[in-house]
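Annotated sample (chain length 140).
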Amino acid sequence: MSSDPQKIELLIAMAERLIAAIEADIAALKAGRPRELRTTDPEIQRLSVLYSREAAGLDPARAKAVPSELRRKFFATTAKFRDALALHARLLTRVRNASEGIVKAVAEEIERRCAPTCTYAPAASYARPHATAMVYNRVI
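Output written by the structure step:
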């Protein structure tokens, strides 16, 4: 197992790569190109799992013993990471809500078009006589 300063440096490096991927996602979402999301890349997903595992294994009491400059950099990177994640989550929620709204509107329109129209005509159980039969009856 690596020492705490090395582990923190590793966490900072991983967080910076994840921040870059999240910022690329944010730019893609703002540009309206959700197919260009980088966080769906398997490499980024493995990195996020590895980051969460390493972060969970960090002992806060032992991390206080690392140099203050490294600690400050770690806190700044972590804050930037949290801010990027919050913005990313908000944008994804907006895109999801818009997509669901469009799908719901299309479904309602299809349902409206397929629904029978209500008229003031007599009920369907009333059978109209054929027009030819009426003509023959009047003529005869």
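Annotation: The two ends are 108 Å apart (CA to CA).
Annotation: Helices lie at 4-30, 42-56, 60-63, 68-114, 131-139.
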